[in-house]
């Protein structure tokens, strides 16, 4: 497995790496279910904060409900299995790609 450490933010999607990561996530049914749960949680927290207002109390109430492992931990685990080492700044892009793919899939089901 190669490392993605050398990739720049601007070309991670050009070489199909994001698509490979999302495809690997979807290929592992249990893993993909956890990603979709994180997206559903993100949507629920967003709706709760919108409903309760932008107060600190709203986000504090949601914090204990957060699922483990986090989407960051899931992304790191997946990328480590697919590519090897992943720098932290790349994880944000990968997390968003996973959540976006999960959102699309969830919207089709609803």
Structural account:
This protein is mostly helical. The chain contains 5 helices and no strands. It has helices at 17-27, 29-52, 56-62, 71-82, 88-109. It is globular and about 40 Å long. The N and C termini lie far apart (37 Å). Mean pLDDT is 78; it is low at 58-62.
Structural class: mainly alpha
The amount of helix comes to 55-70%
Unreliable stretches, pLDDT < 50, 5 or more residues? 58-62
Radius of gyration of CA atoms, rounded to a whole number: 15 Å
SSE order, as H and E? Answer: HHHHH
Mean pLDDT: 78
Oligomer kind: single chain
| Relative strand content | under 5%
Q: Say how many strands there are.
A: 0
Largest β sheet strand count, sense and barrel closure: none
Q: What is the count of DSSP helices, taking H or I runs of 4+ residues?
A: 5
Apparent shape: globular
Whole-Å distance between the termini?
A: 37 Å
Characterize this entry briefly.
The chain has 110 residues and is mainly alpha-helical. The chain has 5 helices and no strands.
What topology emerges from the helices and strands here?
Layout: H1 17-27, H2 29-52, H3 56-62, H4 71-82, H5 88-109
Helix pairs in contact: 1-5, 2-5, 4-5
């Amino acid at each position: 497995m190669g490392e993605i450490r050398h990739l720049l933010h601007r070309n991670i999607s050009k070489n199909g790496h994001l698509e490979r990561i999302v495809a690997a996530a979807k290929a592992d049914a249990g893993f993909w279910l956890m990603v979709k749960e994180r997206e559903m949680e993100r949507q629920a927290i967003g709706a709760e904060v919108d409903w309760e207002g932008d107060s600190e109390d709203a986000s504090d109430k949601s914090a204990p409900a957060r699922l483990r492992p986090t989407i960051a931990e899931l992304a790191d685990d997946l990328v480590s299995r697919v590519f090897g080492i992943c720098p932290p700044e790349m994880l944000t892009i990968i997390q968003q790609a996973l959540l976006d793919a999960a959102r699309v899939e969830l919207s089709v089901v609803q």
